[in-house]
């Protein structure tokens, strides 16, 4: 690992987190373990730029993130999008983070399904001037999908050193064990009032308890 940079890289993992689930946590922990970052920040969006507003408020989604990561060292909540009442464009959030951390590698974490349509993101070229992308494997998505081949041709790297010696501009695919899990599936189970044992492997127990206490998704 290069030691010449005084500002150790950190990672930001943006998501709707409606709700946060085990695959999100596995990705965050994989990045923490394999990308030599000092921390991973989970950043729930307030108003997604690209999809309908979630039925569950940003405050509740952030509370679930906080509960889920409470006992995971090195993984923290990044709340900068929560109080914004305009769409949560990633480029704006990264600009704000860069004001706080002008130097050092900044890694934006996403799943392969997100990379596949990354060229539709607001000012996507500017995102790559502010951060690297680190991309988690996700069942059902591959590096052949959508925008992935051209992005990887121009920005791809297999070198972790690149992510630390450069501040931004590279895309690295990770080799995390894929987990076939989505928040959509969890919401469907919750809405059908499924028993907890079906949800147990999918979502932290404390998050499930919060959902029940706050009656967040209809059904339970
Ligand atoms: N199972 C998974 N494996 C890898 N990446 C994932 C997985 N689930 C979500 N992600 C990534 O996490 C980020 C945030 O995703 P999000 O909060 O929308 O979860 P989701 O499960 O995809 O939700 P939904 O089903 O509501 O779309 C995205 O970059 C997405 O690609
Ligand atoms: O900035 C954009 O144009 C943009 C478009 C699509 C997604 N994003 C961000 O990507 C992250 C994952 O989004 P999602 O829908 O998979 O939860 C989340 O932080 C979103 O704000 C951002």
Automatic annotation (TrEMBL):
Query: Which pathway does UniProt place it in?
Result: Cofactor biosynthesis; NAD(+) biosynthesis; deamido-NAD(+) from nicotinate D-ribonucleotide: step 1/1
Q: Which reaction does it catalyse?
A: nicotinate beta-D-ribonucleotide + ATP + H(+) = deamido-NAD(+) + diphosphate
Alphabetized InterPro entries for the sequence: Cyt_trans-like (IPR004821), NadD/NMNAT (IPR005248), Rossmann-like_a/b/a_fold (IPR014729)
Assigned keywords, A-Z: ATP-binding, NAD, Nucleotide-binding, Nucleotidyltransferase, Pyridine nucleotide biosynthesis, Transferase
Keyword Nucleotidyltransferase on this protein?
yes
Q: Which CDD domains match?
A: NMNAT
Cytidyltransferase-like domain location: 12-188
Q: List its EC numbers.
A: 2.7.7.18
Keyword NAD tagged: yes
Tell me the function of this protein. Catalyzes the reversible adenylation of nicotinate mononucleotide (NaMN) to nicotinic acid adenine dinucleotide (NaAD).
Family that this chain belongs to? Belongs to the NadD family.
Q: Protein name, please? A: Probable nicotinate-nucleotide adenylyltransferase
Q: Which organism is it from?
A: Rheinheimera tangshanensis
The protein's gene is named nadD
């Amino acid at each position: 690992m290069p030691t010449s940079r005084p500002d150790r890289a950190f990672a930001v993992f943006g998501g709707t987190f409606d709700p946060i689930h085990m695959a999100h946590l596995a990705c965050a922990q994989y990045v923490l373990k394999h990308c030599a970052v000092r921390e991973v920040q989970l950043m729930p969006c307030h108003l997604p730029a690209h999809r309908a507003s979630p039925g569950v408020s940003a405050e509740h989604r952030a509370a679930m993130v906080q509960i889920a990561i409470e006992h995971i060292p090195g993984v923290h909540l990044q709340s900068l999008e929560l109080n914004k009442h305009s769409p949560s464009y990633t480029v704006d959030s990264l600009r704000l983070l860069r004001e706080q951390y002008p130097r050092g590698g900044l890694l934006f974490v996403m799943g392969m399904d997100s990379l596949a349509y990354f060229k539709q993101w607001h000012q996507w070229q500017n995102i790559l001037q502010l951060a690297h992308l680190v991309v988690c494997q996700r069942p059902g998505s591959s590096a052949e999908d959508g925008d992935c081949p051209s992005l990887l041709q121009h920005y791809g790297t297999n070198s972790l050193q690149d992510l630390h010696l450069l501040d931004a501009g590279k895309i690295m695919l990770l080799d995390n064990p894929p987990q076939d899990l989505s928040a959509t599936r969890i919401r469907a189970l919750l809405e059908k009032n499924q028993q907890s044992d079906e949800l147990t492997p999918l979502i932290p127990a404390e998050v499930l308890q919060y959902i029940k206490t706050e009656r967040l998704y209809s059904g339970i």
